[in-house]
Amino acid sequence: MHYLTLVTAEIPNLEADLQTNQEIAKHITALEQERKNYTEGPPVILSLALEACNSRRDTFSRAITDFVAQSLERYYAGTDNPDYLEFWDQTEALQSGYLGHIDCIRLPEGRIIPVYSHPVVNHFTIRDGKVYQCHAGPLKHEKRTKRAKRMKALPNYPISKLFPSIASFAEDYYGYTYHKEQNAYGYYYNPDAFYDYYSIGGRWQDLFLVKDSCTECSIGERSCSREEIPAPEGYKWVCAARKKDIEWQAIRDWHLQQAKNRFRSLEKLFLTGERDKDIYGITTADGIYLNGRLLYQKGDSEKEYLSRHGYDDIPRYPAYFYAFLGENGWQSVDDIVTESGNETIKNNWQQTLEDYLDSLADDTVLIGVDCHM
């Protein structure tokens, strides 16, 4: 799952390192030229190299990249820093599980293995006390084939008979390791982790609008595999900039104009059957639906359409973050507890975001980070 996290930084005014900027610019030009040589898309390694260069293309962008790496390290799911790790003792659960049972299959040579194990997993299953082969024959359904009949189903087989000891059960079944310092089986994990990898900007290249003249901004790790989203005349899209340089009204205007364009395209699709690019949905007698959600209702006016989709009340800060990293750590929309339904959760979270953004100084750098977990 990808989700957008707001990271903030206090970065002083920096003197541009022109020599490094020029060297990276040359490297970007060379990579982009090399990319053009591939008619069916560039290799992944080339795309990653270009994204990395984009995120470090100028002095300000490099400061942002280094800051984010330092700030997010403590929240990395794969960190090996002992300061961020806790041990999860699984000894008691193992002892209880060792007394349990599991479905097994006896192979023709006499070996007994759990149904999840190679070579039977996804190929054979137990049904009504017998072994069936999965995806068999032209119909690709479960069938009592000759191979299946040579195997014996052992449902609810005692785990203690399958594994000679709790140690082998822990290591071979769960993959747990015995830790002498804890005198227990289990593993270390980061309880504060919220990502296993991230990219600055990533999927959210159209996050902030700044004027073309703005120099203290970053396009982040803009993916060369994604079509660049055109910005309004006189502006450019970035994923990081100082709060004072972000043109919030221009962003609101852009979102509103996009919504009006979608309305016109949906209306045309409903009335004529002609489908514009990136317009999806199923046309019915009463409107256009997508995944069960009404996009366009028959007879809609532009005003009615915009109101129903929430565009008559665009937030003051039209940046829709799933979470932000503040003084109290990582806070997400999931932390908003309510019993009043999804709309109240959405409104409460938007207010939380606005309050947080209001509290930031104008020089604070806002950075959109595409996190994955």
Characterization of this structure:
The chain is of the alpha+beta class. It folds into three domains: 1-85 and 191-246 and 319-373, no CATH class; 91-189, no CATH class; 249-314, no CATH class. Helix content is 31%, strand content 26%. It has ten helices and 21 strands. Strands 1, 11, 13, 15, 19, 20 and 21 form a seven-stranded mixed sheet that branches. Strand 5 (124-127) and strand 6 (130-136) form a beta hairpin. It is globular and about 75 Å long. It starts with a strand and ends with a strand.
How are the SSEs ordered, and which strands pair?
Blueprint: E1 2-9, H1 18-35, H2 44-54, H3 59-72, E2 86-89, H4 91-97, E3 101-106, E4 112-114, E5 124-127, E6 130-136, E7 141-143, H5 146-149, E8 152-158, H6 159-162, H7 166-174, E9 177-179, E10 184-189, E11 197-200, E12 208-211, E13 217-218, E14 235-238, E15 240-242, H8 248-272, E16 282-284, E17 287-290, E18 293-297, H9 302-308, E19 323-326, E20 329-332, H10 342-359, E21 365-372
